[in-house]
Write a structure and sequence with these properties.
Strand order of the largest sheet of chain A: 9-2-11-10
Order of helices and strands of chain B: EHHHHHHHEHH
Strand content of chain B: under 5%
Low-confidence stretches of chain A: 295-314
Strand content of chain A: 15-25%
Largest sheet of chain A: 4 strands, mixed
Order of helices and strands of chain A: EEHEEHEEHEEHHEHEEHH
Oligomer: heterodimer
Number of strands of chain A: 11
Strand order of the largest sheet of chain B: 1-2
CATH class of chain A: Alpha Beta
CATH topology of chain A: Alpha-Beta Plaits
CATH architecture of chain B: Up-down Bundle
CATH architecture of chain A: 2-Layer Sandwich
Distance between the termini of chain B: 25 Å
Bound molecules: protoporphyrin IX containing FE, iron/sulfur cluster
Helix content of chain B: 55-70%
CATH topology of chain B: Fumarate Reductase Cytochrome B subunit
Radius of gyration of chain B: 20 Å
Mean pLDDT of chain B: 95
Radius of gyration of chain A: 31 Å
Number of helices of chain B: 9
Distance between the termini of chain A: 64 Å
Largest interface: A-B, 60 and 71 residues
Structural class of chain A: alpha+beta
Low-confidence stretches of chain B: none
């Protein structure tokens, strides 16, 4: 953890993170979907910088290659063919990967202290050294991003090149993109750029162009410019209103401390009951002194069914 | 030494071996599970050799527990249905808690409190099994849609909570009612204990003993 002074959130941690510094500016990566030509240079740059060599996969009859994110493919171009109402075809290409949410579901769900951290600049990073491989981050993420490696059972995803950014460089994908479809800078600057691009697209006739910076997860540090921001689903299932699922909220929220408290209170109630009411002492053997106490003579050896009360069989 | 007639057998050696194996499995499951449950309990992951081992071993221990529990449950389910005097006993729960046992009606092998423990565990362990398998990485979770895994995670946490509270109550009851722990360690209870706490069962057993002692 090079950037440890700037960690503002840490998985499975209930005490405050380091807070001495507060001047760090938030960064963002802006992906202008309308400028992407699907060349996958960013995928290659990502492999190269992060030193990842995924298995060579198979062709599934589409340009998607690999067909999904994996522990060794942290970004993937997703191609979709959309037929518009007037019968035209739109070929939409979206660079998929971690969105670096301001309110990351992965971090909320992770049970291992420090396995997921969020830096003051907004980057959400996995520290695989602390990862236990439970997959809760997959359960928590609204974008279906993290992947557990079959090799080491650790979870991986895009780091937004936190190592490069920390050294003052832009992420590898940004550096390599030949069309400037991917840009990087402060979040404020990127929002300005995005607004300008949205204006351009509107001028070109894309009335529904807009910025994808979903408020449901507090905004993201990877943003899209979409020509159809009204229907993000069109871009290979980009969620329209992503947020941490209410199920995850219920699972990871107040229910836990409440349940833990009830377990403790139950045990404590036992202690109090014992010291106030006392145990049920073992009955004296002299209960045998009255062998007829149960309404029959227990000392009788003869099996005399008639004068015995019937107790049922259980 | 008490004469053998003063004892009633409550649990066979196999019952006892099964019970204490379940105890070990359940305690390790609860400790390792609580480690994932809330950060305050993360240190408990060392109960299974550290957090990664806890993550790996917990589900396998869970399967072991389920097998042992099913073996126990099928043997005892018929004794855990609602029986004679159970409703009356429940109405007098105040007398139970205040140790006014002489006012209570005689009941069968298990009292309604014990039956509630039995059924709470049947339900929670079944829920733990189903939800646990759905959450289980790397083996099974990949076959289920993420929204279902989210539901399973919530259900698993709730069911574990129910199971743990139930076991806390169960353990307390054993400590509270003197003479009962021996039934699960050595297998027998005194005749007086049986008549006092489980009158209908004592009568049934004594009759059985008497029949066996017939020349
Ligand atoms: C019946 C078989 C069981 C299976 C297959 C199972 C499986 C799992 C799995 C896969 C996890 C996620 C962590 C991991 O990957 O190890 C988990 C978590 C957990 N388990 Fe189990 N388990 C079982 C039984 C139990 C039992 C009997 C208890 C309670 C004593 C329990 C308590 C917990 C708790 C408290 C958690 C943490 C839940 C959370 O994060 O909110 N489990 N279990
Ligand atoms: S997109 Fe998913 S993995 Fe990335 S920060 Fe958000 S919740 Fe975490
Ligand atoms: S797999 Fe690793 S990073 Fe993901 S939630 Fe579990 S411990 Fe955290």
């Amino acid at each position: 953890m090079i950037n440890s002074q700037n960690i503002i959130a840490r998985s499975a941690t209930t005490t405050p993170p380091p807070q001495a510094r507060s001047h760090v500016e938030e960064v963002a990566k802006l992906i202008d979907v309308s400028k992407c030509i699907g060349c996958k240079a960013c995928q290659v740059a990502c492999m190269e910088w992060n030193d990842l060599r995924d298995e060579v996969g198979e062709c599934h009859g589409t340009y998607d290659n690999p067909t999904d994110l994996t522990a060794e493919s942290w970004t993937v171009m997703r191609f979709s063919e959309h037929e518009t109402a007037d019968g035209n075809l739109e070929w939409l290409i979206r660079k998929d990967g971690c969105m670096h949410c301001a309110e990351p579901g992965c971090l909320t769900a992770c049970p291992a202290p420090g396995a997921i951290v969020q830096y003051a600049n907004g980057i959400v990073d996995f520290d695989s050294n602390h990862c236990i491989g439970c997959g809760y981050c997959i359960t928590g993420c609204p974008f279906d991003i993290p992947r557990i490696s079959p090799k080491d059972s650790k979870s991986y995803k895009c780091t937004l090149c936190s190592d490069r950014v920390n050294a003052g460089m832009e992420p590898a994908c940004v550096k390599t993109c030949p069309t400037n479809c991917i840009e990087f800078g402060t979040k404020a600057d990127m929002l300005d750029r995005a607004a300008k691009r949205v204006g351009d697209l509107k001028a070109l006739g894309f009335r529904d162009a807009g910025i994808y910076d979903p408020a449901g997860v507090g905004g993201t540090h990877v943003m899209y410019v979409l020509h159809h921001a009204n229907d993000p689903n069109r871009y290979s299932g980009l969620p329209k209103d992503p947020r941490i699922s209410p199920l995850v909220g219920a699972w990871k929220g107040v229910t836990k401390p409440i349940m833990a408290a009830i377990i403790g209170i139950t045990a404590f109630a036992g202690v109090i009951h014992y010291v106030t009411k006392g145990p049920k002492e073992e009955p004296e053997e002299s209960a045998d002194a009255d062998p007829t106490a149960l309404g029959y003579d227990a000392t009788r050896r003869r099996d005399d069914a008639d004068d015995r009360p019937h107790g049922g069989d259980r | 030494m008490k004469r053998s007639q003063d004892r009633l057998v409550r649990y066979s050696p196999l019952d006892r071996a099964n019970h204490w194996t379940m105890v070990i499995a359940f305690v390790l499951l609860a400790l390792s599970g609580l480690a994932f449950f809330h950060p305050a309990f993360f240190f408990l992951s060392h109960s299974l050799g550290g957090p990664v081992w806890a993550r790996i071993l917990h589900p396998f221990l869970g399967l072991l527990l389920v097998l042992l529990f099913v073996a126990m449950a099928v043997r005892h389910v018929s004794r855990n249905l609602l029986g004679e005097n159970d409703v009356q006993w429940m109405r007098q729960i105040g007398d139970v808690l205040d140790n006014r046992d002489d006012k209570l009606p005689p009941i069968g092998k298990y009292n309604p409190g014990q039956k509630l423990v039995f059924w709470a565990l049947v339900v929670s362990i079944a829920a733990l099994l189903v939800s646990g398998v759905i959450m289980w990485r790397p083996w099974f979770a990949g076959y289920f849609p993420i929204p279902l895994i989210r539901l399973a995670s919530l259900v698993h946490a709730l069911a574990a909570f129910v199971a743990i509270v139930t076991i806390v109550v169960h353990v307390y009851a054993a400590l509270w009612v003197k003479g009962s722990i021996r039934s699960m360690t050595q297998g027998w209870v005194t005749r007086a204990w049986a008549r006092h706490h489980h009158g209908l069962w004592a009568r049934e057993q004594e009759e059985k003993q008497r029949r066996e002692q017939q020349p």
